[in-house]
Write a structure and sequence with these properties.
11 helices; two-stranded antiparallel ribbon; 2 domains; 9-stranded mixed beta sheet; D-Maltodextrin-Binding Protein, domain 2; alpha/beta
């Protein structure tokens, strides 16, 4: 063996084999890491995110898939009950991101928000004959308000000391509460609430727009630490699609 190693050609051959082995093993490992899908969780929040025919569906799913396709990022999508569960899974590192969502402090503590994919209007809904308005000072103290559990409208009402007496996990139940006078008003995402109102029954309601919020994607800070370019990739894709009016 010692005689073979003294041969320069054989020594060169050994070096080449070792280099090739190193290249194969390292590049294979990188490919495995790159190909691990980003794990999204989405709340049951139609018309933005929901399951239809055992497939993730909705406006938010369609828009996010366009972004992920352009950014060339492999991903999976799983439905959970609400935003609270989605946040818990991200905290426990069992999910890498969620969509669509608006910003709040609790979410920003564990994840980073992308550029918006669309705007989400938060609105007050009253029965048409109601004389109530959130502009009056006594409204906050006296009005019984409903919203959807664990949403950002729920968080906003809590932070601003409104009297929350109804917090079901879906808009249909919230609508029934309003029509049955179990609450005096509901505060909720416009598209979400109006998706459950029958088209010929809009006359039963009075609407006041409170604010318009950016609706985007959250990626967990742990995932970002392991994939530092992810937010730039997503934001670049969102910008390009927005400029091309394809989002």
């Amino acid at each position: 063996m010692i005689l073979f190693l003294r041969n320069k050609n054989f020594k060169l051959f050994i070096v080449q084999v070792l280099c090739l082995f190193y290249f194969i093993t390292t590049t294979s490992y990188s490919a495995v890491i790159t190909d691990v899908p980003l794990k999204f969780v989405i709340p049951d929040f139609p018309p933005y995110t929901y399951i239809k025919n055992q497939q993730a569906s909705g406006v938010g799913v369609e828009k996010t898939k366009k972004v992920m396709r352009l950014a060339n990022i492999n991903h999976t999508i799983n439905l959970v009950k609400d935003y609270g569960i989605a946040m818990l899974l991200m905290k426990k590192n069992k999910a890498d991101g969620m969509f669509l969502a608006s910003e709040n402090e609790q979410r920003n503590n564990i994840a980073t928000f992308t550029k918006p994919l669309l705007m989400n209007r938060w609105c007050w809904y009253f029965k048409a004959e109601s004389g109530l308005t959130p502009l009056k000072r006594r409204f906050k103290r006296n009005a019984k308000v409903g919203t959807i559990l664990n949403t950002n409208t729920h968080q906003w009402l809590t932070n601003n000391d409104y009297r929350i007496t109804g917090k079901p996990d879906n808009a249909a139940a919230l609508n029934k509460m309003l029509l049955a006078d179990r609450v005096n008003a509901v505060f909720v995402s416009e598209s979400v609430f109006e998706a459950v109102i029958e088209k010929d029954k809009y006359y039963l309601y009075h609407k006041i727009i409170e604010v318009e919020k950016p609706f985007g994607i959250y990626i967990s800070n742990k995932y970002i630490a392991e994939h530092p370019t992810i937010i730039k990739q997503l934001n670049d894709a969102i910008t390009q699609l927005t400029q091309q009016n394809k989002l």
